[in-house]
Task: inverse folding
């Protein structure tokens, strides 16, 4: 019997899937527990339409991610940081939130979970910050930390 899963069932499948199961399993367990329903023609049609729509949406988001990756590849984000007079200790650091803020000023919008920064940047230099724009689109952003000592650039 074809059934439509209303909830995730570890041994069977995930919510929204259509599965073939034994009649007794469906009638005696799945239906009374309200974790599945009979998959009639309307449900099968609805599921196939949703899958098609999901494929279209995925292609669109991947295309947008690729365009954003191309835009990001052209950017070198320069961020000034204040350092002690000896130039060894930074008074602050660059984290994901700071990178997002700096990118927004350049009309590039990212979410914090798209920036795969392991630890904050605290030293002067050029860094490659990994980004995950889409499950299939990964890139990196160049971030240059410029030291400012006592109000002057180092």
Result:
């Amino acid at each position: 019997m074809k059934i439509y899963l209303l909830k995730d069932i570890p041994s069977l499948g995930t919510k929204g899937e259509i599965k073939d199961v034994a009649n007794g399993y469906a009638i005696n367990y799945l239906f009374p527990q309200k974790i599945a329903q009979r998959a009639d023609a309307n449900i099968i049609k609805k599921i196939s339409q949703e899958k098609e729509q999901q494929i279209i949406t995925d292609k669109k988001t991947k295309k947008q991610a690729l365009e954003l990756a191309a835009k990001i590849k052209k950017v070198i984000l320069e961020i000034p940081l204040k350092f002690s007079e000896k130039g060894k200790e930074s008074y602050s650091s660059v984290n994901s939130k700071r990178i997002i803020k700096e990118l927004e000023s350049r009309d590039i919008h990212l979410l914090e979970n798209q920036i795969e920064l392991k630890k904050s940047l605290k030293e002067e230099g050029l860094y490659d910050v990994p980004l995950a724009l889409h499950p299939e689109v990964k890139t990196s952003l160049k971030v240059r930390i410029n030291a400012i000592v006592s109000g002057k650039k180092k």
User: Anything to note?
Assistant: The chain has two domains: 2-60, 67-153.
